[in-house]
Please model this.
Amino acid sequence: MADHEVEVPSGPVSVAGTLSVPEGVRGTIVFAHGSGSGRFSPRNRAVASVLFQSGFATLMMDLLTAEEEEREVRGQSRLRFDVRLLADRVIAAIDWLTDDAKVAHLPAALGDLPVGCFGASTGAAAALIAAAERPQRVGAVVSRGGRPDLAGEALRRVQAPTLLIVGGNDPEVIELNRRAQAMLAAESRLTIVPGATHLFEEPGALEQVAAEARDWFLEHLAPRTPA
Model:
């Protein structure tokens, strides 16, 4: 396993990230974390480990800078709920991966490989907005306990096949996901994990999420054939 601590530029700031690249990499999954979470989220890292073992590079990012996080803790801002800002930073990460010069030190040209997005909570909306605005780069999206409804009208422009995973004991989020799915023009599927609550803390729940995400990305993220 090759881990690279990286700084992803986004407008006037840069956000910290960890890029993990397996041998024989087949694509890259960009993680968009939910409010109050970051690249060290144990749940998302558990999913990332399964994806890594299946040949996917993973980019775990803090969507807020350290200074922004500090202001959040002090109650001086609510950027963690600014879906547009979070989406812009996911888009910046996708663009950064596309620039071969910035990742030339890695063992594979990630810019030539397909990209998927995995979003949790508000990060799911950010991932879907990014997919809508980078349709040629984002080949698939997975949402875990997400709020895809917060992507609004961008849902109608998403071309990437989208998997929505929700816990069976999370009825409000199930309904919000159903409404969002009705707006998606692209292929989509709503998977409900029986007995799981919002954070998928029940035995076996997160393992099912990881397996569903792995299978979705394996099915929909085929490397592009060079012209």
The chain has a mean pLDDT of 88.
